[in-house]
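In response to reviewer comment 3 from the previous cycle, which asked for concrete evidence that the modeling workflow produces usable outputs, we include below a single protein chain processed end to end. The sequence was submitted unchanged, and the resulting structure tokens are shown without manual editing.
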Amino acid sequence: MINKLTFTFLTLFLASFVSFAQQIQMPQSSPSAKISQQFGLTTVTVDYSRPSTKGRKIFGELVPYGEIWRTGANAATVVTFTTEVVINGKEIPAGSYALYAIPGKAEWTIILSKNTKLWGAIGYKQEEDQVRFTVEPTKTSKKYETFEISFNNLTDNGADMSLKWEYTRVDFKIITEVDNIVMADIKKQVIDANSTNPSLLYQAANYYFTNTKDLNQAYAWIKQSTDSDPKYWTMHLRAKIELALGMKTEALDSATKSKKMAEEAKNPDYIALNDRLIKSIK
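The workflow returned the following structure tokens.
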């Protein structure tokens, strides 16, 4: 009798388990998304879920003012930086952080938490913050039906991260170090190593020229590069540096050689670049 009851119980339990394990495939109400943006020497990746308005009033109702918000839906939104960055004047080490916000009518608090394992904001603790700062929200004329995170105003040194939903937009700047890193690499690979590699010399010269550093040093590097292994793009840079140094005769000669090499390589872009450069010299 006991064995029969046990068997019956197990049969019912397994049947119940199987029925609960079966699921109908349905679309997510807040689909997951992943955005990755490179600027300078940094890549920022955001993993988040995107809820939609669906006729609801968002800020002040669905997302209450003055309360911690997961900045999306479902699991916590996670932001990953491949290098150290600066946000609101504070250094943020490379790594992953949960992105939270405390919305307000006139001011939002943005939070990066070191705890990325939470489901939404359940269990959030302020002592786990890496940084928190305030920003001013703006009203938009365009309605963002679905919550959106994006990057705008990209430069070599940073970008703006934007949070947009309904008629509200919040932006904050992420700054990354570039010049010190590049200069240290040039020192290591070119200066200290006394490099004769034409490619490295070209890269160093190009960085010095485009970032208004020591033009004489840039010229020494590009001259060494082109004397040993001339290419139409390296000769074009040599011509630009020579012109910047007031060496018009040399610049015209270098631009003419660059154009001829570009014609042989059938590169219309550099042919046009050299035509404009030659015209400016004459």
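Residues 28-176 form one domain. We consider this sufficient to address the reviewer's concern, and the full set will be provided in the supplementary archive.
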